Amino acid sequence: MSIFKSRVSSLSALSLLLMNIATTAMWALLSLYFQDILHLGPQITALIISVQPLMVALLSTPVGRLSDRIDKRIFAVAGMVVTTIGLLILSQLSYYTSLLIPVTGLILVGIGLGLFASPTTNRFIESIEGRDYGMGSATLSTMIYSGQTMSLGIMLFIFSIFLGNVQIIPSNFQTFLISLKIAFIVFATVSCVGLIVSILNWKK
Q1: Nearest C-alpha neighbor of 188 from the set 26, 6, 37, 39
Q2: What is the pLDDT of residues 82-126, one digit of tens each?
Q3: Confidence at 6, pLDDT banded by 50, 70, 90
Q4: What is the CA radius of gyration of the chain?
Q5: For residue 70, what is the DSSP state?
Q6: Residue (of 8, 120, 134) closest to 64 by Cα position
Q7: Where do the DSSP E strands lie in 68-161?
Q8: Collapsing DSSP states into helix, strand and coil, what is residue 39?
């Protein structure tokens, strides 16, 4: 727990936790939306959803290099802003939404994660002593996996309130869309809180 005595390490770990809470359940939500509401096949659904991790893969390395040369806070804060906007766009999905809308949301979330991840991870590692690097790495993994678990838990909690223990069928599609909307608004709010934490983390 001594790692968290530092304000920088605590806020960096917290922002990583919040980012994973805000984004992990998105894949499950969109998978259900594409297949049940838009009636797309699983292969097409997987290809569309892969846009988000593709953006992360394309941006992570160049952003990591750039953040070593210029002010890292620009990337981290901008990443949270872009992620929040992407989640708000995804909260607008309906029966008649153009496919371009969820793809745009996925691209923005991917860009946000790509901008955010490397600088924040570096910020955390730089805030701890060399002898604690192993524990620091384990702490980062804990934040990531805890965030992913909490994200899915929040999604299931929202679904249990509105849908209950039922299969998603045409008769409850409207209820599912309401659950989807609320879930994305909740995750956008979590991302907004993460933005505040990120700003505090990079405040001199």
Answers
A1: 26
A2: 999 999 999 999 888 889 999 999 999 999 998 888 888 888 887
A3: confident
A4: 18
A5: S
A6: 120
A7: none
A8: coil
pTM confidence score: 0.89
What distance in Å separates the CA atoms of residue 116 and residue 144, rounded to the nearest whole number?
Answer: 13
* Residue listed under structure tokens 């955010």: 116
Query: Which has the closest alpha carbon to 118: 81, 83, 66?
Result: 66
Residue 168: CB atoms within 10 Å: 17
Q: 169 is written with which tokens?
A: 């069928």
183 contacts 25 by C-beta, under 8 angstroms: yes
In terms of Cα–Cα distance, which of 125, 128, 126 is closest to 5? Answer: 128
CA distance 24 to 52: 11
Whether residue 128 contacts residue 6, with contact meaning beta carbons closer than 8 Å, is answered with: yes
Measured at the alpha carbon of residue 125, what is the angle toward residues 124 and 130, in degrees to the nearest 5?
A: 140
Q: Find the distance separating the first CA and the last CA of the chain, reported in whole Å.
A: 24
Reduced to 3 states (helix: H, G, I; strand: E, B; else coil), residue 115 is: helix
